[in-house]
Specification:
415 residues; mainly alpha; 0% strand; globular; disordered N terminus; disordered C terminus
Length: 415
């Protein structure tokens, strides 16, 4: 076998395959803003209707994350991910043929959510099962893969749209999704014991089996609801920016490719910050790191709300990319630190409801505010306020459980 020939722990092959899935998924999802104006132009949709399709997608992500996370805990990743890969490609191919907004909502919002919605939590839960000491580092690699996909796909999608129109761009992206996601899904294994005794003997870097919290026990803790709110405001801000940064840049007079370049800078910087953030999180209190990241991210959103010239978008893209890149890796690592790995897929799936609610609310609110006022200022200020609350909540998590070890957590169940 490959893992025996090269004497490489199979967990790294799992991370490589999961990274391909993350890159494909986030490359597709983060490219939505590149399609924003072409869709508006052809169908005469306003910004709230256009961003509403993406908001519905993100809202459904929470639902499919919960369902698929539970399915992975029961059936393993391959049986769940292969059908998801087929649905992903199909959704994009069908989207290339839509003629009305309700069709776009079905083919893109619903089907793409079914295909890609749970990719994030499935891949991150796999990392938590295969790795213990290097858990945050492994998650950082996965997050960097997602950012790399966005860096590549945003300008590629813009070029495809300019060269072949948006329908052909969706068609080609769907074919690419099939070619990448199906083979990667076949490489995945659920945990080291599935690889047999030889793999179990090599668990120096892999996760320790842990009963952790039951589902009902986790939901009844304060930490669960702190994390619920943290993830809501993080996704609220992140997807508001991901959806509207390209239209915002074009409002300033940048060309579509130049505007896509702003998002590419942001996601390119996040690749480094995800890798660095994962390694740092393995060596320090993750909650203290989160406090710093949320605080700086809030300041960047205030800066964006005050920006009135195109060049201001570039320092924003750099600083925002640094902060958001390290944030989600730390949040995921905290989940497994606090609640264990036995039910990690299901717990992350439930927490992803908050992620879905936040990521759906942020883009839609920004579109609605723009349609109402002709400007994004109050939308960005709202996001900054939520991030300040998240910084406060992360500080409370630090004070209550500075060790970050679920085996040492006191019972803090909500009465």
């Amino acid at each position: 076998m490959i893992k025996e020939r090269f004497n490489i722990f199979y967990g790294w092959y799992v991370i490589a395959a999961a990274t391909i899935l993350m890159a494909t998924c986030f490359g597709i999802v983060y490219s939505f803003s590149v399609y924003f104006f072409p869709l508006q132009s052809e169908f005469s949709w306003d910004r709230s209707a256009t961003s509403g399709a993406f908001s519905l997608y993100l809202l459904l992500v929470g639902f499919f994350s919960m369902v698929c996370g539970k399915a992975v805990d029961r059936f393993g990743p391959r049986r769940v991910l292969i059908p998801m890969a087929v649905i992903t490609g199909s959704s994009l191919v069908l989207t290339s043929q839509v003629k009305a907004i309700w069709q776009f909502y079905v083919t893109y919002s619903v089907l793409l959510a079914a295909g890609t919605g749970a990719i994030y939590i499935i891949c991150m839960s796999l990392a938590s099962r295969w790795f213990f000491r290097r858990k945050a580092t492994a998650m950082g690699i996965l997050g960097a893969g997602g950012s790399l996909g966005a860096v590549i796909m945003a300008p590629v999608s813009a070029w495809l749209i300019q060269s072949f129109q948006w329908r052909t761009a969706f068609m080609l992206t769907g074919l690419l999704a099939w070619c990448l996601m199906i083979p990667a899904s076949l490489m995945l294994k659920d945990s080291p014991p599935e690889m047999g005794p030889d793999a179990v003997d090599r668990l120096a870097d892999s996760t320790e089996p842990s009963a952790g919290f039951s589902i009902s026990g986790a939901v009844r803790t304060r930490k669960f609801w702190y994390l619920f709110l943290l993830w809501f405001w993080f996704s609220f801000c992140l997807y508001m920016v991901m959806t509207h940064i390209v239209p915002r840049a074009q409002d300033f007079g940048l060309t579509p490719v130049q505007a896509a370049g702003v998002m590419s800078i942001m996601t390119a910087v996040s690749i480094v910050s995800r890798l660095a953030g994962g390694m740092i999180a393995d060596r320090m209190d993750k909650r203290r790191l989160l406090f710093s990241l949320f605080s700086v991210m809030a300041l960047t959103m205030i800066g964006l709300s005050m920006a009135r010239v195109p060049w201001a978008l570039y320092p924003f893209a750099i600083v925002f990319g640094i902060t958001y890149g390290g944030t989600d890796t730390s949040i995921i690592a905290i989940v497994t630190d606090v609640f264990g790995t036995a039910k990690v897929g299901t717990i992350m799936g439930i927490l992803m409801i908050s992620w879905g609610l936040g990521s759906a609310s942020g883009p839609y609110l920004a579109g609605w505010i723009f349609d109402l006022t002709g400007d994004y200022t109050w939308a960005f200020v709202t996001a900054a306020s939520g991030l300040m609350l998240s910084a406060y909540l992360s500080k409370k998590l630090t004070l209550e459980n500075p060790a970050g070890n679920h085996q040492k957590v006191k019972d803090d169940r909500v009465a």
